[in-house]
Specification:
Blueprint: E1 3-15, E2 50-51, H1 53-68, E3 71-72, E4 77-78, H2 87-92, E5 107-109, E6 112-114, H3 116-127, E7 134-141, E8 148-156, E9 162-172, H4 177-194, E10 208-219
Antiparallel strand pairs: 1-9, 1-10, 2-6, 3-4, 5-9, 6-9, 7-8
The protein binds zinc ion.
Zinc ion is lined by residues 70, 79, 81, 83, 86, 88-89.
Length: 225
């Protein structure tokens, strides 16, 4: 298996609705009762919001697996067939299988940090003392009494925020680069048109769009610093 090229996909990941990408708690809000499990994830280096590559990669894999009906353990676990003709295992890796026929994982999904324009917008909003995050309270409805119980407040990233997205595909000698790239772009299309990112997608959270998608093919032999 010889690694030959890299396909680099760059795009703007734009939030069309408030989006909840969970952090690990310890939010800095003052005077607000935000459930510690429902704070938005922030980059520890600069305290800015970001979209972890693992969130986008997981969603991408899951929508494509569902479309193809390729999962294991009755839909409870990712596909682990490891077959050469399985696009899921080839692109995303064969889950728990240690020596799959399809070889190594081809995809790398980078963490998506805020675009320069969104960062500037946040700076202005913050300086004006306005909130840089939405608070959404959700109730759990008791099905027999119809009463709302246990309201929990979570943070959502603001609609309109744009993140710089990047996905790489490692292309090996026998791989069909066009097919793999098309497969990933198709998955992004499903997320955009028919699904969501982050938590609460069935309740009006996490509609996103992928705009200004650029595609570049980089021969490995050209890379240097
Ligand atoms: Zn598979």
């Amino acid at each position: 298996m010889k690694w030959e090229t890299v396909v680099r996909l760059k795009f703007d990941l734009k939030l069309e609705e408030g989006t909840r990408i969970g952090g690990s708690g310890g939010g800095l809000e003052i005077g607000e009762l935000v459930d510690s499990n429902l704070t938005a994830i922030r980059n520890p280096a600069n305290d800015e919001f970001y979209i972890p590559g693992s969130s986008l990669k997981g969603k991408l894999r899951s929508v494509l697996e569902r479309e193809l009906g390729r999962t294991s353990n009755n839909g409870r676990e990712p596909c682990d067939c490891g077959k050469v003709d399985c696009m899921i295992c080839t692109v995303f890796g064969a889950h728990k299988k240690t020596q799959p026929e399809c070889g190594v994982t081809r995809i790398v999904v980078r963490d998506a940090f805020m675009s320069a324009a969104s960062r500037e917008e946040f700076r202005k909003v913050g300086a004006a003392g306005k909130p840089i995050v939405e608070h959404k309270t959700e109730n759990v409805i008791n099905r027999s009494s119809g009463a709302a119980e246990h309201p929990r407040t979570g943070e959502r990233l603001l609609p309109g925020t744009v993140f710089d997205g990047e996905i790489l595909l490692h292309v090996y000698e026998k791989d069909d680069a066009k097919k793999m790239t098309g497969f990933v772009r198709h998955g992004l299309g499903i997320i955009q048109e028919a699904s969501s990112l982050g938590a609460g997608g069935s309740r009006g959270s996490g509609k996103v769009s992928f705009v200004n998608v650029r595609e570049e093919i980089v021969p490995l032999e050209k890379l240097t610093v």
